[in-house]
Design brief:
Layout: H1 7-19, H2 22-29, H3 33-47, E1 52-55, E2 58-61, H4 63-86, E3 95-101, H5 103-110, H6 114-120, E4 124-130, H7 134-139, E5 145-148, E6 157-171, H8 173-179, E7 193-196, H9 197-206, H10 208-216, E8 221-223, H11 226-234, E9 239-243, E10 254-255, E11 262-271, H12 272-275, H13 278-290
Parallel strand pairs: 3-4, 3-5, 7-8, 7-9
Antiparallel strand pairs: 1-2, 5-11, 6-9, 6-10, 6-11
Helix pairs in contact: 1-2, 1-3, 1-4, 2-3, 4-13, 9-10
């Protein structure tokens, strides 16, 4: 039975499981929905197991489907590893690779890990560019690799989902001492709030409640720099909406015990041209390792409040008002 297992059908299954929809998977794979459905049916017959529950709202994984997805992703990672290990095996991995992403991830997550990368890969010149539109730089070939917050629709761009950013509110202990803490998200209008200009522009696409939240608050600072947000917040300048991973930066800020505002998915993207470059594949593998959920739980699909990592650093009362989201700058 298993010797006839079709890897192509497993790859289709991975996409269906990720998107939760046959139609969405068909759109990404450039196939018809009946073709995608037939491949899933064939895979289920090969495994003699039901992998998906289907409904008008989409698909969900059965227990067998969850196990199959886990093994399929292991196989996909192994295939990527084989490609990177064998590709240009006799050629030295050297030269430049340009990586584009937003300034927040570049400054606070990638930069601290760069010294180790350089020690391991002394002949690779990594050019790290910060931009509000990493997808545009990838398309016009100003970048080799990008981390972006909107899934690419172009068939010539390879995308690997890296994880999810979960946004909560942070403040410095000095700010809390001087101005108190909000009793709820609806009390934030009494405080000086800091937000990224991209969030303001994207909130209507996150969810209706996010738009109401934006209209409720008169922001004291709107900036296009995540680094500026963190520094102003750390120096008592107000309450900032930031991704949970900043809790591990050692800055003078603590997460408030308020609900998550929006989960934002992000992708690692590159072109087929770049996939064939040994030095670029090394960078791609390094990035996937940096965001691996076992090593970096901040980027898991499911939200976990930073209070679960350090229960002594939280101020305020909890609510359950999570606002789902889709993308961010």
């Amino acid at each position: 039975m298993f010797e006839n297992l079709d890897w192509d059908k497993l790859k289709v299954f991975i996409v269906v499981a990720e998107l939760g929809s046959m139609n969405a998977a068909a759109s990404r794979l450039k196939e018809t929905a009946p073709t995608v459905s037939r491949k899933i049916d064939d895979l289920e017959r090969s495994l003699n197991a039901r992998l998906l529950y289907r409904s008008p709202r989409g698909v969900t994984l059965t227990d067998a489907g969850k196990k199959t997805l886990r093994y399929a992703e292991i196989m996909s990672d192994a295939a990527d590893g084989l490609r990177s290990d064998v590709l240009d095996h006799d050629s030295p991995a050297e030269g430049s690779v340009t990586l584009c992403t937003g300034d927040g991830l570049a400054t606070h997550w990638l930069a601290p890990h760069l010294p180790d990368f350089h020690l391991q890969n002394p002949k690779i010149e990594l050019r790290l560019e910060t931009t509000d539109r990493p997808d545009a730089d990838l398309i016009n070939e100003k970048a080799d690799v990008a981390i972006q917050f909107q899934e690419p629709a172009r068939p010539d761009i390879v995308s690997k989902r890296l994880g999810v950013l979960h946004y909560v509110f942070f403040a410095s202990p000095d700010y809390i001492e001087n101005f108190g803490h909000p009793a709820s998200v609806f009390d934030l209008y009494n405080h000086r709030c800091i937000i990224h200009s991209g969030y303001v522009n994207q909130m209507e696409r996150w969810a209706p409640k996010a738009k109401e939240f934006r209209d409720l608050i008169d922001f004291a600072l709107v900036t296009n720099s995540g680094a500026v947000m963190v520094e102003v917040c750390a120096n008592g300048g107000g309450i900032a909406l930031l991704p949970t991973y900043v809790h591990g930066l050692g800055k003078n800020i603590v997460p408030l015990k308020l609900p998550e505002v929006a989960p934002i998915r992000f992708w690692l993207t590159y072109t087929e041209r770049v996939r064939r470059m040994a030095r670029a594949q090394i960078v791609i593998d390094w990035l996937r390792g940096l965001f691996h959920q076992q090593k970096a739980p901040w980027f898991k699909p499911t939200f976990e409040h930073p209070m679960n990592y350090d229960s002594g650093s939280f101020i305020g009362e909890s609510e359950s008002l999570a606002v789902p989201g889709s993308d961010a700058p």
